[in-house]
Design brief:
Elements (H helix, E strand, L loop, with lengths): L17 E5 L5 E6 L5 E9 L12 H9 L8 H11 L2 E6 L3 E9 L3 H13 L5 H19 L2 H14 L12 H6 L2 H11 L6 E6 L3 H12 L21 E6 L6 E8 L8 H12 L5 H10 L3 E8 L7 E8 L4 H17 L4 H18 L3 H13 L10 H6 L3 H11 L6 E6 L8 E2 L4
Helix pairs in contact: 1-7, 3-8, 9-10, 9-15, 10-11, 11-15
Length: 438
């Protein structure tokens, strides 16, 4: 018999448990009822981001998104904050690379009002001049802080080298010179020309009834229409030769290294084998093989790990490490040695099983909260992975073989042709082009 105190597990999100509806304006709604606690999370995305802004105004989309939260026709910024604080709720609007990300967290009884407030932010933003100047200055301050962060600068240089002039090569928050150019008129124009419900989505998870939620979204957003946005992207060209740069930051005691390659779009069939390979290479335990070798055995790194990014266009697959300047050359050599090992030596059955079990076992942890559920369902919808994605997840991970890992390593990881960025004091490293901090 189940005890009254035993937590009730929700069924796995699937086509049978996710209620879907598309409004005439193209906004897709996904509702997952989870009555375990009287709370709800909304995780939304509208096609609106830095990929659509002109390079000379890099950071415009992020500023515009933040300004939507700075007041509506009927509510000032202070009034919005006071209202949300009184309810213990939150509404966040953030500009990303491809999307305006919408996040709402509240009690179930307050969801109707939260949806109304969010609709006002999207449809009737106030754009107060004083808040724009304050936000712009805060953004410039954060950019200046980034210029003093060796890890941030290494990743920034790596992305520029990897993508060149492609929109993926620019930081979402912009640069000092580009943000300085943005005016309130730019923000207003970008909002009018780009924000649209068409192609967007709202994922609602919590103690709600799907029919009632869909009706409420229809009431506040159903008659909203925006421009027809061209969401096509220029092609990403894979680097044909090694690209490298060093960002000199002489007042620092640490050098940060980012070394890697282009990966895949998120919905590519090789994504799961690449996730398993990346977990093995630099994620499992204390940083996978990279962390074990560079950090634990050699004791040379403050941190060492790998990261895998997927988006609508190819993302990046990279290793990152923070080391003392005198250890840069040896660390780079080890990262490349571990890349060759992944390509040339079949992973053992025990190591593969450990990594697969880790990936399978960590999924339920991600699904324990409304926030985690909404995030996973949102990815499934945004990247068109299929609403049965979680039902087949374990089988896909378990079906990855040692040969699959070698195959994707050979295809997407070339230790003789890579992109390398370092940031920190000058050190004896592989000769690279020196780049100035913007």
């Amino acid at each position: 018999m189940t005890s009254p105190n035993t937590p009730q597990r929700h069924p796995m999100p699937s086509p049978d448990t996710i209620v879907t509806h598309t409004l005439p304006n193209g906004l897709r709604i996904y509702v997952y009822e989870n009555p375990t606690v009287p709370a709800v999370v909304v995780d939304g995305a509208l096609p609106f981001g830095s990929v659509y802004e002109p390079p000379e105004l890099n950071g415009l989309a992020a500023l515009t998104a933040a300004m939507l939260r700075r007041g509506t026709r009927t509510h000032s910024f202070d009034t919005l904050n006071e209202t949300l604080d009184a309810l213990g709720a939150s509404i966040e609007l953030t500009g990303g690379r491809h999307a305006l990300d919408i996040y709402i967290q509240c009690l179930s009884e307050d969801l109707s009002y939260m949806l109304e407030l969010t609709a006002q932010m999207l449809r009737e933003p106030r754009f107060p001049p004083d808040e724009f100047e304050r936000l712009k200055q805060q953004t410039l301050t954060r950019i200046q802080e980034r210029y003093n962060d060796t890890r941030a600068m290494a990743f920034l240089a790596f992305r520029r080298l990897l993508y060149g002039d492609h929109p993926y090569g620019r930081p979402v928050t912009g640069e000092k010179d580009t943000v300085s150019r943005v005016t309130l008129e730019h923000v207003r124009a970008f909002y009018r020309q780009h924000l649209t419900p068409q192609g967007g989505q709202l994922v609602i998870v919590g103690d709600v009834r799907a029919e009632a939620v869909i009706q409420r979204v229809t009431e506040v957003l159903g008659d909203w229409h925006g421009p027809n946005l061209d969401t096509s992207l220029p092609p990403v060209e894979r680097p044909k030769a090694m690209r490298a740069a060093h960002i000199p930051m002489e007042d620092k005691s640490q050098t940060d290294i980012v070394l890697g390659w282009l990966s895949l779009p998120r919905n590519h069939p090789d994504w799961t084998p690449l996730v398993v390979a990346n977990t093995l290479w630099g994620q499992f335990g204390m940083g996978g093989r990279i962390g074990d070798r560079v950090r634990e055995k050699e004791g040379m790194a403050y941190y060492a790990y790998s990261t895998l990014e997927g988006n609508f266009a190819p993302g990046m697959w990279a290793a990152a490490a923070g080391v003392a300047p005198e250890n840069v050359t040896q660390t780079i050599s080890i990262l490349l040695e571990e890349a060759r090992r992944l390509r040339e030596e079949p992973v053992t059955a025990d190591e593969l099983e450990e990594v697969q079990s880790f990936l399978v076992g960590s999924l339920p942890v991600r699904l324990e909260t409304n926030e985690g559920l909404a995030s996973v369902i949102g990815d499934m919808a945004w990247y068109n992975l299929g609403l049965d994605y979680l039902l087949t997840y374990e089988a896909r991970v378990r079906n990855v073989t040692a040969a699959d890992i070698q195959r994707v390593a050979h295809m997407y990881m070339d230790p003789d042709n890579y992109v390398l960025a370092t940031a920190g004091p000058q050190a004896e490293v592989t000769p690279v082009q020196e780049a100035q901090v913007p």
